[in-house]
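Invent a record, attention on tokens:
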Amino acid sequence: MKTILALAALVLALTACGDDGGPTTAADRAGGGAAGGGATAPRPAATPAAAGPVRSRSLATVMDTGAGAELCLGPVAESYPPQCGGPTISNWDWSKQRGTFDEQGDVRWGTYAVTGTWDGTAFTVTEAVPGALYDPAPPEQAPLPEPSRDYSQPEAEALATDLGSWLPGAQGAYADGEGHVLVDVVYDDGTLQRYVDEAHGVGVVVVTGALVDA
């Protein structure tokens, strides 16, 4: 009888310790569990503000449905008029953009390369170059970093879904099939990238801002 009780106690002890070496699920990784490393800092709660001037990384759609201009930095539905939304532009003046936009009823829209300031909530424009006059410099195609941790495709897709649902300013997120999760956000001063590096491994999540420092 004593032998049976001793064996039972040993099994319970091993079970209690088994959490340290047990398998990690995709949900664990997406939430910053053991395989994701886990961030010590709290989750970012808001889109960072920019300390200085910023510009749109490429052309952006300015959309006004009658309630004020918004800067569409994410997907734009190809309808007529198009449909999109984004941060408020605090000082947009359509009278200064005559001949550069379309309108239907109360809806006005156009594409512009914009420069201005970003307070984390609203954009204030200081310059807007119409799309027809925009002559961008050749894009710099920096290679993606080598992921420091291995994620399977299902795990990477779960992580993309998770980050796309809560990372401040997220415009979209997807797994590229090569171990990366690419997340588009409104703006990042480095705070968001540092958090995901710590939580999920350096080079796993790549954060790209639609607004960049000018």
